[in-house]
Amino acid sequence: MILSMTAFARREAGTAAGSLTWELRSVNHRYLETALRLPEELRGLEPRVREEIGRRLTRGKVDGTLRFQPREASAQAFEVDEPQLARLLDTLQAIRGRAGEALAPSALELLRWPGVLQVAALNVDDLNARALELLAQTLDELVAGRAREGGRLAEVLAQRLDAMEKIVAEVRRLMPETVAAFRERLRARLSEVKQSLDPNRLEQEIVLFVQKSDVAEELDRLTAHLAETRRSLAAGGQIGRRLDFLMQEFNREANTLGSKSVDIRMTNAAVELKVLIEQMREQVQNIE
User: Fold this and answer.
1) For residue 287, what is the DSSP state?
2) What counts of helices (H) and strands (E) characterise the chain?
3) For residues 170-191, average pLDDT
């Protein structure tokens, strides 16, 4: 299976304390780089979240966001701290005794005093467990998305490989024709200037031409690279760096093919190869 490095996943879940939402975004990168944004209540989860992401992914820039929305106040259980309220009222009574006519606070103002109104404590351990469980589900979705995208990338690469193989086969077919065409051009030029050339010298010129324009080795290496690329695509796994190296080798051979070209058809073939290689290289950048 081939994985792309580009994907998005989002999962939500409700808990007794509120709702949790994970969002994961990944794009291509040379290594695995993780950036996290966690709510303050769950800040302690960061090391475990990084560990889990590192266990599932090997390359890509991953942005992870966890949102926690507590339950509305009306749905939470409130308790009044009776001893704290009694102390507050005693203090207010003492102030009224000293200050005379002091304004008495309302019931709402009394509840706002720190420590009077108690809200049920947040069960952080349970919330952490639910957040990690939801992260695993979100990672499942992210990996599935990367796999679907990777499958499409493999299809695109296979199409480009087919086109490259046809070009390589066509250049092989043209090689004998270019030698024959050079022989005829040389004879025609000699005929125009009405000079004769020793047959041995003619053959020497043709041998020199063949040596300078011979691209058999380049075609053999291109064929080998095509086979290796297909093998890597069939094997799957973490092949992004291997494919990136093969794209560099493809480009090197195509450049040499173009520099040795003595026929416009071979020049055009080298250009078409470079176009296909660049299209493949752009897609390979997204493969894990």
Assistant:
1) B
2) 8, 6
3) 69
Angle between helices 216-235 and 240-259 (to 10 degrees): 160
Q: Where are the domains of the chain?
A: 7-72+124-147, 78-119, 148-284
d(CA 166, CA 269): 10
Residue 60 φ/ψ region, left for φ over 0, alpha for ψ in the -120 to 50 degree band, beta for the rest: left
Top-tier CATH class for 7-72+124-147? alpha beta
Rounded distance between C-alpha atoms, residue 21 and residue 19, angstroms: 7
Cα separation values, 199 from 149, 202, 205, 206, Å? 61, 5, 10, 11
In this predicted model, which residue has the larger pLDDT, 44 or 109? Answer: 44
Share of the chain above pLDDT 70, in %: 76
Matching residue, tokens 């009224």? 96
Q: What is the CATH number of domain 148-284?
A: 1.20.140
Cα 110 to Cα 11, 82, 92, distances in angstroms: 41, 12, 10
pTM over 0.85: no
Query: Any idea what DSSP says for residue 263?
Result: S
DSSP state, residue 4: B
Per DSSP, the residues of 244-274 read HHHHHHHHHHHHHHHHT--SHHHHHHHHHHH
Q: Contact 153/4 with Cβ under 8 angstroms?
A: yes
Alpha-carbon gap, residue 263 to 94, rounded angstroms: 107
pLDDT for 75: 46
Structure token pair of residue 74: 């009306």
Nearest to 160 by CA among 221, 225, 255, 219: 225
Q: Which residue has the tokens 């590192």?
A: 54
Report the C-alpha gap between 143 and 56 in whole angstroms. Answer: 8
